[in-house]
Specification:
By secondary structure, the chain is mainly alpha-helical. 68% of the residues lie in helices and 2% in strands. Strands 1-2 form a two-stranded antiparallel ribbon. Strand 1 and strand 2 form a beta hairpin. Helix 2 packs antiparallel against helix 3. It is elongated.
Amino acid sequence: MSDITLVTSRPVTTPMKRDTSRNGKASISSSPDRCKEKFLPSQKKMFRHGAIFAAVVIATLMLLSLTHLAEGIARTTGVGFYRAFAMAVGIDMGLIAAEAIRVITATTALFERVKTHSSVIVWVTVILSMFLNALAFCERVDADSHHIALGIVFGIVLPLLVYLLTRIGAVLWVAGRREAGV
């Protein structure tokens, strides 16, 4: 037998405290110490790499989304492309910022103060982005119903991908930086 120790990738966790004081429904406590997961340094490094990869994919999807949002905004409001593009940047970056704030504050007492407003920002921008992306995807297609349906599906899926990848990437980044002194 060798002296090599097998290290698994499963984190050592402790159960979260459940708060049942509100209407008898179980909810996770909002205390800062509610998340006690301990990860190995190699796991943290993998989390950070996963977060960076997610950020690259998000940036690529956002380039597509921004141009479609700008086209949709320009078409519906009549403003020039540069103003529409600036508004599109505000919409997509507002979505990413609001979700990042939710994830970053999730294990702190601040979470209760930001969760409602950030949730509203996230879902309003996702729905607006879906509509404007679908409008831009369908703008150039023929009257064929299959192409229009596909354009609508792409318009709906693109903002959801940006949202979900932002959420996953932020969670991985925070987990990878926890207890790293940063």
